[in-house]
Structures are given as structure tokens and as C-alpha cells.
């Protein structure tokens, strides 16, 4: 029983020390809308040139650590699909999103309606000038519908499961300790 309590106390201290030793992941979703020109082949987007600074949408489309940035303009960098990654895509309120990969890329038209659509998206890293936040993996999507130059953009932070992994390791340790005690 003493070994079990000792193992429990050590695991708890390890989890607390690890969680306090690092910054917290960025969480939330941020959406933008604005004008852009899409360059494309018949089936893929090759570039996106942002015509103006994109603005955030309403409060319902800004969540998590991005709260408070509603209505604030973001600075976007034009996208060249052939350019090597990573490169910065947008900056707003101390946050920066850096593209690390492009996974979705399509351009097409809707038969019978004569409307075009574009979809571009992938993965990236969201970072902050605030040292309380650690760089966090995220996803990004740009969509354009119709024949206008209006586009919408969405970024979602996807925190790494470090805390869950530590908890899993602690539980594994408990299992092994119990197994050794029984043997």
C-alpha cells in the first residue's frame, strides 16, 4: 500500500510540474471575410491575392483565445500554392498563422448554374506574441462561392494532447505497479 501511495503522489507531482512548466495551447476558432482574386486551372487553385484587409465576422464566429478580436482587421499574405511552406498567412492582435501544408485544393463550376467555387485548406501553426501561449497546431480553410471575389476564411486551433498523454502514462504506471504487487 505504501508503494501505491508513493507512486500516486509521484505521478501527481509529475503531472502538476509538467503542466505548470509549459505555456498553454491556443484554443478557439476565428473566421474572416473579405475580397480576394483566385487564380486557377480548370480543377485547382494556383494562387489567392487578397484585395484588402480581411475583417473578423461577428462574435459567434470568434471563440476561445481569439475572443476580443471581433471586428478587428487582419493582415493577410497572398497565397501561392507552389511556394514552399511554411510561410505566414495572417496576423491579428498578436496571433500569427503560418501555413505548413496545403491538403485541400479544388476549383470547379456548378453545372447548369454557371457558378464557380474554390476550396483551399490545410494545416499550420498558430503562434502568439504572448509568452503564456505555446505554438499550437491548427487547420485553415478558404472558400469562395459564386463568381464574386468574396471569400471566407476559417482557422481552428487543434491543441496537442500532451496532458492526455501524461494522464495515460500515469494510468499505465498504476497498472504495472498493481500487476507487480499481485505477482
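^ Assign residues to that structure.
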Amino acid at each position: 500500500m505504501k508503494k501505491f501511495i508513493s507512486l500516486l503522489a509521484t505521478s501527481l507531482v509529475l503531472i502538476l510540474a509538467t503542466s505548470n512548466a509549459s505555456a498553454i495551447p491556443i484554443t478557439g476558432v476565428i473566421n474572416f471575410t473579405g475580397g480576394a482574386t483566385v487564380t486557377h486551372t480548370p480543377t485547382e487553385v494556383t494562387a489567392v491575392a487578397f484585395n484588402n484587409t480581411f475583417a473578423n465576422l461577428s462574435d459567434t464566429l470568434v471563440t476561445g483565445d481569439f475572443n476580443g478580436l471581433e471586428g478587428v482587421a487582419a493582415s493577410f499574405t497572398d497565397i501561392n500554392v507552389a511556394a514552399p511552406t511554411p510561410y505566414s498567412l495572417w496576423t491579428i492582435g498578436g496571433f500569427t498563422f503560418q501555413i505548413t501544408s496545403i491538403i485541400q485544393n479544388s476549383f470547379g463550376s456548378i453545372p447548369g448554374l454557371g457558378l464557380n467555387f474554390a476550396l483551399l485548406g490545410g494545416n499550420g501553426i498558430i503562434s502568439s506574441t504572448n509568452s503564456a501561449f505555446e505554438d499550437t497546431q491548427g487547420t485553415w480553410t478558404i472558400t469562395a462561392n459564386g463568381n464574386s471575389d468574396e471569400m471566407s476564411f476559417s482557422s481552428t486551433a487543434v491543441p496537442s494532447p500532451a496532458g492526455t498523454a501524461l494522464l495515460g502514462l500515469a494510468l499505465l504506471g498504476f497498472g504495472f505497479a498493481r500487476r507487480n504487487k499481485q505477482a
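The radius of gyration is 22 Å.
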